[in-house]
Amino acid sequence: MYEEYILSAISPSKKGKLPSKVINFTEGVEIPQGSIPRFEMFRGAEGDVIVNMNHYTGIEDLGDKIAVKAGTTWREVSEKYNVELHGNLNLTVGGTLFFGDPVYGLNEFGSMTAKVEVEGFNGTLYQGKYNGGIPLKVFIKKENKKITWREWRGNTSSLFSMVRSWYNNTIPVFRDISVVKDNEGVKVVASYPETREILLKPFLNSSSPGNPFYDKIDSPFYYEGEIPLDSLFSLEAAIEMAEFAVIRVRKDKAVYSISSNNKLLGIPNVKFSIEESIFNGCILCGSCVNVCPHGKQRGNDVSFTPLGLYVLQSDGMADQVSNCHVCGQCISVCPAKLDIITDLRKFVNPTLPQQSPRPPLNDLRKRINVVLTPISAELYDYALRSIEYLSRLGLDVGFIYLNVNPNSLIRGNPDLDFLMNELVGIEELITITPEDHYYLQILKARRVIQIDFIGTMLLEKNPDAVKGKSLHVPCLLKSEPKTDDDKKIHDCSTFFLNKVNREGMRADLKADVTLCPLTSKGLGIPSVLDLSLPQIPDLIETFKQIKDKVEKGTENTQIILDDLSWFEGINDTVLQSIQEEAISKGFSDVPYITLKLLYIYTPSLPYELRDSKLIEKMKSVILNAQT
């Protein structure tokens, strides 16, 4: 529905005509003659028929080599395999081959085309060396040699001179020679198979051990191109101003990729660049696409990610694709540092009920309080168990229900005056859900308040609760506990997201335990709270026992009062104190923790108990009880 509009953006600074047809390539799909491939979101070409390769991803291990589907990024390749050559982490394997981008190994291999084989389409399907057209699969050899890395540090000019001098009378047999600018400065990094070291000794003077590195698009402005090696010094000014840059060299040329926070002028022979954005600063890099729960909820449709928001905003359709729960995963990966949350909140329209029945609990305000909101109201059993747990740790914890409009909370515009009034005297809130923990952070815009999540607190105290188990870490939890990283599943179950937008729910979350109680309830996965929180006493039975004890004490007191009634002039306060003492004895052996739980739980008692005339007096005793 929206894909044609998305793919009409052929660069961050240019929008072309709408294609008449988009083909999402999969195995066996017929490719019409004259089709134009699209490998990355931030670069492409106009065409009547676009073959979208972005979803055609995956890697097959073939022993000494791998078969990589063309839409797979180099980042995915590098995370799993050590291969002979690689490209920019943000680029796809197919796109690198199609556009002739720089790759690691330039000094030895010359180009990616020389080292790989493909399954491709160039009017007909073919296999072998790349011969133009659309690469569908790329076959890359695994690295079978031990590679040594060395580096040289210095100023840009001296390093340029050194590299050029290496090619004066010979060819240095390094696998790769690159000038790299990063946050530590400028350096030359070279690599070679260990067996060649004897041939390279004349070049290794003043070098130190180095480390592998990868090209990446690291900033809002990006430049890629090729110059003759003799023109290397024409890049000196750009390197000095760049945040990150890689210049790979060979005997006759230098190919560069330069990332900068500012627009750079005078760079020679730019083949591809990301500069001015006509999409409110979005550079279409697609980083947000890979982490966006809303896109995954909609079947990995890029239209429902922040990238879709920015492209479709120019067509007046942003409100149709932006109804998410503003989790903020996108912000952490955006190289352009866009304020995506603010932009999304202009269009989100959550569908949670504005008025929800409050949980059947009394507020008991303390300096530290377990908190529920309409988002978490149904989880009041966890609130009671959390109060029990925290009280056992020696904390005097109360309870508060913040009856705030949940949709306004998600949109970032709750009634802060109301909330500030509700929180007078409260210094810390402990939430039951990651959702409340995330959205209530807005309180800090108006006052200093500590906000913690009980799930994180539980695992900090007892990480063994999830030992050996795969742990689901929800997308809204920004401060996760320290546990076995290999067992963590960072993902969005979409259970709460579906409650927010009613656009469907995934059912493929595979985890032994979750840190999200809402996901636990929705998908039947045990939560950390289930595993770690203590069970509370049977409060109804405890209440009955207290009631029976008080009533028996009252009967005995009545005998005393009847006897005293023969005496004239006895002070009424004496009689009242006798009655209150009888009631107090009913609570004398009840722990303070249980007294708090009883008071909070009072609205949940059976009607016949709540109808008792003693309840108000009992509440007074409970409220006035001290640790």
Topology:
Blueprint: H1 3-7, E1 9-11, E2 14-15, E3 21-24, E4 36-38, E5 49-52, E6 59-61, E7 65-69, H2 74-80, H3 93-99, H4 106-109, H5 112-115, E8 117-121, E9 125-129, E10 134-141, E11 147-153, H6 156-166, E12 176-182, E13 185-193, H7 197-200, E14 208-209, E15 221-228, H8 236-241, E16 244-250, E17 253-260, E18 270-274, H9 293-297, H10 306-313, H11 340-345, E19 368-372, H12 380-392, E20 397-401, H13 406-411, H14 416-422, E21 428-431, H15 434-439, E22 450-453, H16 454-461, E23 471-473, E24 488-490, H17 495-501, E25 513-514, H18 517-523, H19 528-532, H20 539-564, H21 572-585, H22 592-601, H23 607-610, H24 615-624
Parallel strand pairs: 3-5, 4-5, 19-20, 19-21, 21-22, 23-24, 23-25
Antiparallel strand pairs: 1-2, 6-7, 7-10, 8-9, 8-10, 11-13, 11-14, 12-13, 12-16, 15-17, 15-18, 16-17
Helix pairs in contact: 12-22, 20-21
What does this structure look like?
- This protein is an alpha/beta fold and 627 residues long.
- It folds into four domains: 3-141, Uridine Diphospho-n-acetylenolpyruvylglucosamine Reductase, domain 3 (2-Layer Sandwich); 147-274, no CATH class; 350-535, no CATH class; 539-624, no CATH class.
- Helices cover 30% and strands 19% of the residues.
- The protein has 24 helices and 25 strands.
- The strands form six sheets. It has an eight-stranded antiparallel sheet with strand order 14-11-13-12-16-17-15-18.
- Strand 21, helix 15 (434-439) and strand 22 form a beta-alpha-beta unit.
- It is elongated, with a radius of gyration of 33 Å.
- The protein starts with a helix and ends with a helix.
- This is 4Fe-4S ferredoxin-type domain-containing protein.
- Residues 270-302, 314-347 form the 4Fe-4S ferredoxin-type domain.
- Pfam families: Fer4_8.
